């Protein structure tokens, strides 16, 4: 693989490897990781759907369950789409590597590097923003605990949960297992969104760089052809 491809797409490789959708991973990891992640999504989607059925008449007042069901199914579809189209992703990555070997002119390589660098920066920026917002969201359950420490009351504040669903058991007794499950599901869902979006972004950015490099080559060829024709016309006796 070309050194530039390894550098500009190493972040995408790390993200995709964590979800088991990097083409060069073992078949075992490609099966196990997406299966585990999808099972988490379907569990929370089922629980939210049950709650949605219970509060259907008050949906306009409490639409959280409806949103969570859409997010869970959306994340599952995004993940499964790349899983089932993994061969296509592998083919696209091989084409990217091939393109980096095809262009050898200094200015063409410069154009490719510029577009790839923009794609890398956009990937990092998008991931930082989304994960930062996710971190703020994940602070919701620990807020009462922190308030009890810094601004104590006569009694402890009630627990808060990331997902307000009925687990068919006492949530307060199993608060920390529920909290860990909620955190894992949230991180997985956000990671799927970040990985898929940044992967498509990087591929689109490479396509833009490819067109720019080809455009430069065509313009350079036309200019060279015109210059050659002028020289021939100049030397041909009338």
TrEMBL record:
Task: List, alphabetically, the Pfam families matched.
Answer: 7tm_6
GO MF term set:
odorant binding; olfactory receptor activity
| Compartments in which it is found | Membrane
Q: Please, which domain of life does this record's source organism belong to?
A: Eukaryota
Q: Name one GO cellular component term.
A: membrane
Q: Which UniProt keywords apply?
A: Membrane, Olfaction, Receptor, Sensory transduction, Transducer, Transmembrane, Transmembrane helix
Q: Name one GO biological process term.
A: signal transduction
Per the record, membrane topology reads: Multi-pass membrane protein
Q: Where would you say this protein principally sits, based on its record?
A: membrane
Tell me where the transmembrane regions lie: 31-53, 65-84, 122-140, 173-194, 200-219
InterPro entries in UniProt? 7tm6_olfct_rcpt (IPR004117)
Q: What is this protein called?
A: Uncharacterized protein
Q: Could you tell me which species this protein originates from?
A: Cardiocondyla obscurior
């Amino acid at each position: 693989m070309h050194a530039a491809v390894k550098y500009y797409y190493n972040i995408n490789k790390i993200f995709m490897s964590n979800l088991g959708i990097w083409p060069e991973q073992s078949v075992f990891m490609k099966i196990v990781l997406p299966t585990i992640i999808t099972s988490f999504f379907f569990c929370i989607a089922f629980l939210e759907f049950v709650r949605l059925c219970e509060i259907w008449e008050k949906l306009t007042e409490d639409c959280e369950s409806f949103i969570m069901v859409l997010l869970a199914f959306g994340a599952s579809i995004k993940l499964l789409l790349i899983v089932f189209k993994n061969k296509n992703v592998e083919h696209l990555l091989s084409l990217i590597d091939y393109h980096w070997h095809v262009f050898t002119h200094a200015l063409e390589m410069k154009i490719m590097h510029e577009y790839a660098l923009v794609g890398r920066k956009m990937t990092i920026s998008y991931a930082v923003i989304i994960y930062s917002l996710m971190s703020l969201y994940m602070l919701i359950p620990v807020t009462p605990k922190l308030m009890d420490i810094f601004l104590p009351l006569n009694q402890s504040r009630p627990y808060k949960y990331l997902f307000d669903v009925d687990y068919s058991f006492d949530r307060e007794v199993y608060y920390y297992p529920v909290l860990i499950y909620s955190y894992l599901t949230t991180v997985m869902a956000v990671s799927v969104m970040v990985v898929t979006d940044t992967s498509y972004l990087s591929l689109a950015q490479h396509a833009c760089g490819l067109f720019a490099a080809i455009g430069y080559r065509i313009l350079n060829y036309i200019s060279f052809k015109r210059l050659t024709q002028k020289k021939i016309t100049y030397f041909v006796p009338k």
